[in-house]
Amino acid sequence: METVGEIMEKLIQKVLVQRGECPECGQPLYGWRTKNPDGSERCKPTCMQCGYKALRVQEDLQTERIYNESLKARAINFFKGGSVVPNQALFDCTLQNYQIVDQETRQAVEVTKRFVNSVLLGNPSHLVLTGKQGTGKSHLAMAAAWEVLKRSNYDKKILFIGLQEMLDQIKFSYNNPELRKTIEGSLIADIKTADLVIIDDIGSELGKDASDSRAFGINTLNSFLDARQNLATIITTNLLGEELKKAYGTRTISRMFVNSDGFTMVFSQTADKRIKPVKGAIA
């Protein structure tokens, strides 16, 4: 009389066929001998010894891929949808297309890379880019944002805020209840809590003379800086030390430069790339 094991072995040989070896235990993987009418496998191969299922692994990999794609899409949508930028072309700025034209721009890239590494280590670092117009400060700020986003596997909330554009939106919202609700209810809250925020072109909201700074702009900027003292932040401005101090006062300057040791860059030599165009450069 045949044993149960022998009967099962004959059944296996009759309806199943070996489809390789199990990556877990090295025993045979079996699949159905007959296929679907369209020629496809009825199911993924299975190991009789350890229960390994190629289908399960495939599904796990697919689930992980879908999750990662969803995480990436969500992070990019938050970044692009929540940011307030003067020019959508800014989103095309990366470290790869930043043009190094002299020693100063080379140094700026190195400072930016150090900042990115610091942020990825969880430090509340501040990167401050100041100096001449058209030297690529906004470009570097955006490039840093993309580096942090990509290297964190899109697990960071990041916003790029053009200060002048942001102030204009806030003012405009006073006559638009829905817009005001959006700005005051979520955007400002996100600015104060996101993992990384770029506050771009500080000083652009001032009058022709830096001493003509407006209380509204200063108060709004201070509210952002107060909230971001212990959060990663990038500041860009065309103003230099004394100009900044005259326009905003020591309190604001202190908030800007907190946690910025080793992460400040003053552009004083690089030519304005908007006068002498350099491909791929944005101020």
Automatic annotation (TrEMBL):
Residues 123-263 form the AAA+ ATPase domain. InterPro entries: AAA+_ATPase, IstB_ATP-bd, P-loop_NTPase. CDD domains: AAA. Signal peptide: none annotated. This is DNA replication protein DnaC.
